[in-house]
Design goal:
Chain A: Its EC number is 1.2.7.11. The complex is a heterodimer of chains A (384) and B (88). Chain A is of the alpha/beta class and 384 residues long. Chain A has 2 domains: 242 residues, Rossmann fold; 127 residues, Rossmann fold. Chain A contains 12 helices and 18 strands. Chain A is globular. With 88 residues, chain B is of the alpha+beta class. Chain B has a domain of 59 residues: Alpha-Beta Plaits (2-Layer Sandwich). Classes of the chains: A alpha/beta (384), B alpha+beta (88). The interface between A and B is medium-sized, with 23 and 12 residues. Bound molecules: iron/sulfur cluster (SF4) (2 copies). The site of one iron/sulfur cluster has 13 residues of chain B, from helix 1.
C-alpha cells in the first residue's frame, strides 16, 4: 500500500467528528446538546462563530426540533448534519421516521449511550439499535479514526443518487467521544474532491411539489417497497464509496471487517469500540494456538447478510457480543446473525455484556472463547 | 421540472375550487383598512403564514393560501378583520 505523509491531529472522538463535519461543509446544522455528544456541538458552534464553517446553526429547544430543522433544510437542498445520543435519539424518533420515510439525505452522528431507566450516561448500543427499522443506513465506528472517516463517507453515501437516504454514524459514547487518539485527517482539498457540493434538490418554486404527502394504502406499500430496494442498492454504493475513500486515505473499509477469521474455527461477532478489545483477545488466543477470529459489523443497516454468510461458512461456532438486548427475545446482533446463518447449522452463542457502560476487557472475550472451546458456554450468557 | 429520483414520496398538488387552498375554506377574512392600526398581530398569528405587509404598509392576505381558519380575525385588537362566508 502506498504510504502517504498525512497531517495528524490529536483529537477526542467528538472533535474528530466535528472536524469531519467542518470539512464536509454542511450549510445547515441543528444540534441539541446531550451527554456525551455536547462537546461536539460546542466545537461546531466554535467553528461557526470563528467563520471556519459557513453554516446556519439553528439553535433548537429539543432533539425533535433538531431533526425537524435539518429535515426541512435537507428537503430544500442543503447539506445538513445533526447529532444526538440516548434519550435524545428517542425524543428525535418521531422525526427520524419522517426523514427516513421521505428519504432525505441527512447525516446524524450518534454518540451511543444506554437508555433510561435507570438513568445513566454511559455507553451501550440500545439507543442506536432501536432505530433499525426507520429506513436509515446505520454504521458504527470502532475508533476515533473510523468515526472521522465514516462521517465523511456518510455524507457521500446519503447524497448518492442511487441511495438518497439518511445515514446514522454511531460511535460509542465516552469510550470514543471523549478519548483522545492520533487521527490522520485529509486535506480540505481532498475532501472537496471526494465530496462535491450537494446536487439533489426537492424544492423548485417554479414547479412546486408536496413533500411528505399522505399516501393511500396502494401507494404506501409501493413507496415502502421502493425504500426496501434502495436499501438493498445501497450496499454496492457503500462499498464503492468506501473503496473510493480508500484510494485517497489509504485506509480500507468494507461492510464487515474480518480480523484473522479466514482460517478460524471460532469467530467473535461484534460491533463498535469493543471490537478492539476483541481483537486483543483474538491475538492472545492465537498465541495459545487456538484458531479464533473476529468479525466486525461496520454497517448494521442494510445488514450485510450475504457477506456474513460467506465469511462464516466454514466456522465451527460463532459468539456474538451484544451491547443491546431485545427484551423477551434475545441479543439483537445474535438474532441477526442467527437469521443470516439460517440453514448452515452453525451454533450461535450470544453474550450480553457492557450494558450501561459496564467494563468489558479482552479477558472477558478470552474467557468466553475458552468456555466455548471446552463446551461450557451456554446459548446465552450475561456478563454481570 | 425537478428530477426527483424514483421512489421518493412526493405529490404534485392540484388546484382546489377555492384556489390553491383546495376545498378547505368556507369563510374568507376581509380586512377593513379604516379600522386597521397596522399592529401586525394578524401577520404574527396567521397559521398559514399568508398575511404580509405590503409596500403601503397594510396587511395583505394571500387568498391563494388562506385556509379561512379565522385566527387573524380573533387576534385583531380593533376587530378590523371580518370573516365573510364564501359558501355559495
Ligand atoms: S391585527 Fe388587525 S389591526 Fe393589527 S395589523 Fe392586522 S388587521 Fe390591522
Ligand atoms: S383566516 Fe387563517 S389562514 Fe386566513 S389569513 Fe386569517 S389566520 Fe391566515
Amino acid at each position: 500500500m502506498q504510504v502517504l505523509k498525512r497531517k495528524s491531529l490529536a483529537l477526542v472522538g467528538n472533535h474528530a467528528v466535528a472536524y469531519a463535519v467542518k470539512q464536509a461543509k454542511p450549510q445547515v446544522l441543528s444540534v441539541f446538546p446531550i451527554t456525551p455528544q455536547t462537546t461536539m456541538l460546542e466545537k461546531l458552534a466554535e467553528y461557526v462563530s470563528k467563520g471556519e464553517l459557513k453554516a446556519e446553526m439553528i439553535r433548537v429547544e429539543s432533539e425533535h426540533s433538531a431533526m425537524a430543522a435539518v429535515y426541512g433544510a435537507a428537503v430544500a437542498g442543503s447539506r445538513v448534519f445533526t447529532a444526538t445520543s440516548s434519550q435524545g435519539l428517542l425524543y428525535m424518533t418521531e422525526m427520524i421516521y419522517w426523514a427516513g420515510g421521505q428519504r432525505v439525505p441527512i447525516v446524524a452522528a450518534i454518540a451511543t449511550r444506554a437508555l433510561a431507566e435507570p438513568w445513566t450516561i454511559w455507553d451501550d448500543h440500545q439507543d442506536f439499535i432501536s432505530k433499525r427499522d426507520a429506513i436509515w443506513i446505520q454504521m458504527m465506528a470502532e475508533n476515533v479514526q473510523e468515526a472521522y472517516d465514516m462521517t465523511l463517507q456518510a455524507f457521500k453515501i446519503s447524497e448518492d443518487q442511487r441511495v438518497i437516504m439518511p445515514v446514522m454514524m454511531g460511535f460509542d459514547g465516552f469510550i470514543l467521544t471523549h478519548t483522545m487518539e492520533r487521527v490522520e485527517v485529509l486535506e480540505d482539498s481532498e475532501v472537496d474532491s471526494f465530496l462535491p457540493p450537494r446536487q439533489f434538490n426537492l424544492i423548485d418554486f417554479s414547479d412546486p411539489v408536496g413533500v411528505g404527502p399522505i399516501a393511500t394504502p396502494d401507494e404506501y406499500i409501493k413507496i415502502r417497497y421502493e425504500a426496501k430496494k434502495a436499501m438493498e442498492r445501497s450496499k454496492d454504493v457503500i462499498r464503492d464509496i468506501m473503496k473510493e475513500y480508500e484510494k485517497i486515505s489509504g485506509r480500507k473499509y468494507d461492510l464487515v471487517e474480518c480480523y484473522k477469521c479466514e482460517d478460524a474455527d471460532y469467530v467473535i461477532v461484534s460491533m463498535g469500540a469493543w471490537s478492539s478489545d476483541g481483537k486483543v483477545a483474538v491475538d492472545r488466543l492465537r498465541n495459545n494456538g487456538e484458531k479464533v477470529g473476529l468479525l466486525k459489523i461496520r454497517v448494521f443497516r442494510p445488514f450485510p447478510k450475504e457477506e456474513i454468510r460467506e465469511k462464516l461458512k466454514d466456522v465451527k461456532a460463532v459468539v456474538t457480543f451484544d451491547r443491546a438486548y431485545s427484551f423477551g427475545s434475545g441479543g439483537i446482533l445474535a438474532n441477526e446473525i442467527k437469521s443470516a446463518l439460517y440453514g448452515n447449522n452453525i451454533p450461535v452463542h450470544s453474550v450480553i455484556a457492557g450494558l450501561g457502560g459496564k467494563d468489558v476487557r479482552p479477558l472477558h472475550f478470552q474467557n468466553v472463547i475458552e468456555d466455548l472451546i471446552s463446551g461450557k458456554l451456554e446459548e446465552e450468557r450475561w456478563i454481570l | 421540472m425537478i428530477n426527483v429520483p424514483e421512489g421518493i414520496p412526493i405529490a404534485r398538488p392540484k388546484l382546489g375550487s377555492a384556489g390553491k387552498t383546495g376545498t378547505w375554506r368556507l369563510d374568507k377574512p376581509v380586512i377593513n383598512y379604516d379600522k386597521c392600526t397596522r399592529c401586525r398581530l394578524c401577520i404574527l398569528y396567521c397559521v398559514e403564514n399568508t398575511i404580509d405587509m405590503k409596500e403601503d404598509l397594510f396587511p395583505l392576505i394571500d387568498y391563494d393560501y388562506c385556509k379561512g381558519c379565522g385566527v387573524c380575525a380573533q387576534v385583531c385588537p380593533t376587530h378590523a378583520i371580518e370573516m365573510v362566508s364564501e359558501v355559495k
